[in-house]
Amino acid sequence: RVVGVACGSAHTVVATSEGAAFSFGWGHFGQLGIGSTVNALSPQPITSLAHCKVVRVACGSAHSVCATDEGRVLTWGWGVNGQLGLGDDATMLLPALVKRLEGVYVGEIACGLAHTVAISQVDQGVYTWGWDEYGQLGHGG
Q1: In 3D, which of 31, 29, 35 has the Cα closest to residue 11?
Q2: Mean pLDDT, the chain, whole residue set
Q3: 41 Cα distance to chain centroid
Q4: pLDDT, position 39
């Protein structure tokens, strides 16, 4: 049973009640998280997430994000503006843990074109990263 869905420019990621994640659509930047840049015409399991229970998914234009039942955040896909939160601008073909959020229990995630937002479930702290040309990260000028 699907319990969460998110759409990017031309890709979709879903979370199931069993904690699995599936993706399909355009894969040019690795945003499907299946280890390649191929397109997928039907849902593909994101097998590298099998070790955790996915409870939330979000998509930007060409990147994807998930939150686990342990409050951890993983990202993958297009990273040219730092929207993956991995400390660089690399593009990732497989989900990678956002280490800067270690110790933060994330309950909500969201994405814009090339930025990502996470909200702590404990203190409602808001964490943002990625493209900030128009102030969309809220960091001030």
Answers
A1: 31
A2: 98
A3: 20
A4: 99
